[in-house]
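Look over this record before class:
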Amino acid sequence: MLDQNRLTIAFASLRAADKKTVLPFITAGYPDLDTTIDLLAAFRRQGVRVCELGIPFSDPVADGPVIQASYTEVLGRGLTGSEIFQAVAEYRRREAAACAADGLPSLALMAMVSYSIIFRHGPENYLAQAAAAGIDALIVPDLPLEESAALTPQAQERGLCNILLVSPMTPPPRRLQIAKASRGFLYYISVAGITGERKRLPEETIQAVADLRRQVDIPICIGFGISSPQTVAQVCSVADGAIVGSAIVHRIADAAKAGAGHDELVARVADFVGELLAPLR
């Protein structure tokens, strides 16, 4: 079923065109769900093919202070997972009309979600809701390789990719195991520690991804620390995509604190994503 998945289609078309991409991360519902929907639409118009939605959770595994603060604000308003899925479904409804009008491809959506949330709702129920809403993939950062073995086939049955993660601390043989078990792409964490903006990534990470790239065919995307066109270019010299989270959420927070209106906030953040994409055009 994954041959019809928007994520696998996006990376297949990018690879065929010999292109790389930026994968923006935004917190679902931050500062509100209307903004989330409009940011997704604006990213698609900028040429983004894949976007990551953070599902707010009270005890995130590796998110730095910027993303944690956004989660806290959303949870404080009582936003529910069902409301997030309703917003995704509304985005898909609007997107269908937009794609027909502008001819641009659909946006693949990944949910970064703690397994605690999936477990509480029941895996079958959660996966069914995610697929029905229009989610294409899951990233479950607190689910190790061995425990993902049960979730991956359940996800595939519903047309969802289960994306696995490796870090600089993962031994090379295990990196290879994880890469072969991942679906959609492999998420390579650039540095040990939490998310956050950095001026440059370790050369050891770039070399490690280059080495792994020669051993596996699955797309590899690097996340953590990417915050500028320069770091995007550095990452995409070896990887298929650069995942940018804290730098984007930071700009959303700054615009909101500065009193920017809805349209201005969306425009500012979309322009920043356009800047990140510039080295790859």
